[in-house]
Write a structure and sequence with these properties.
alpha+beta; Immunoglobulin-like; 2 domains; transmembrane helix; transmembrane; membrane
């Protein structure tokens, strides 16, 4: 009987230990992208890259430290937010910016380096360095001028009656000279596919090399559309070349409603609270089981001693 009870207790303790071992995953981190590459850098160019540092478990607070290595390229790299990032308890991912500034006297050629992220943990008053991950850096300095851009997204929002049509356009400059699209054409159709309007917007501002910019596009309509739902074909062009086209839907409404936005942080916090409650419930259940086993054992043992006397 005693051996059986001891075996059950060991199994339950092992189960609780398995649950608590979830904390160990907080010692592992991941980062994306895993590589920073650019072969269009010119002397004096600046390149910003956003790294996302993540982990599977957010039970504990940990600090991630980033360092740069590589002959000739280390001095080009800096971290505007500092070279450490704190993942607070309950936070699974954070972003950090890596800035690369090519010297104006940099020679044409290829440059290689890497970034290394490690975890710095304090345990029992001692600082421990936990091996992390590596991000390769592959750069090339050139004297060739390249004009290139992409449209990351276009969104059209509902419009109040009589108000301009409102679009949000995000442009990525992937070249090494300042540029932007030339025109945006919005062609409006009704639900029956009958064309009703065609409006043109001209981009006046440029996007700097290797940067992104979000444009707030307002397109007035001299003759307001009636209330209802419409289709809008958005065409963005650079010179004679179409660089983006997409069909979207939008509505013309009497008035725009106020929008309540629930932040991602609140959702993450709620998820962590639920997880903590589940783990706590399981632990209490296991401890309760151990208590019941002890109670039954000692009760039977007491009854046996009474009968023996």
């Amino acid at each position: 009987m005693k051996k059986t009870i001891l075996l059950l207790i060991m199994l339950m303790v092992g189960f609780v230990g398995g649950i608590s071992s979830v904390n160990a995953t907080s010692s592992s981190i991941g980062v994306s992208p895993s590589q920073i590459s650019n072969n269009l850098l010119v002397p004096g160019a600046e390149l910003d890259t956003t790294l996302t540092v993540s982990r599977a478990s957010a039970v504990d607070e940990v600090t991630a430290k980033i360092e740069s290595f590589g002959d000739g390229v280390t001095s080009w790299i800096s971290f505007p937010q500092g070279n450490t990032v704190i993942l607070a308890k309950g936070v699974q991912r954070v972003e950090m910016i890596v800035k690369i500034k090519v010297p104006t006297d940099a020679k044409i050629g290829k440059y290689v380096g890497n970034l290394r992220l490690t975890l710095v943990k304090e345990e029992k008053g001692q600082i421990n360095i936990v091996p992390g991950v590596r991000v390769d850096v592959n750069l090339e300095v050139t004297d060739a001028k390249t004009e290139s851009l992409t449209v990351q997204y276009v969104r059209i929002t509902d419009s109040a009656f009589g108000a301009p049509y409102s679009l949000i356009v995000k442009i990525n400059n992937t070249g090494n000279i300042a540029t932007s699209p030339d025109t945006l054409v919005l062609t409006v159709f009704d639900i029956a596919e009958k064309q009703l309007r065609q409006l043109t917007y001209t981009f006046a501002e440029k996007v700097e090399p290797f940067q992104s910019k979000e444009f707030q596009v307002q397109m007035p309509d001299a003759t307001p559309l009636p209330l209802g739902e419409y289709l809008g074909t958005v065409t963005i062009a650079k010179g004679s070349k179409t660089v983006f086209t997409e069909r979207l839907t939008f509505r013309v409404v009497a008035a725009l409603p106020s929008i309540s936005v629930t932040s991602e942080a609140k959702a993450q916090k709620s998820s962590n609270v639920i997880l903590a409650m589940i783990v706590g419930f399981v632990v209490l259940l296991v401890l309760g089981g151990v208590a019941v086993i002890f109670y039954v054992f000692f009760k039977r043992d007491g009854q046996k001693r009474t009968s023996d006397t």
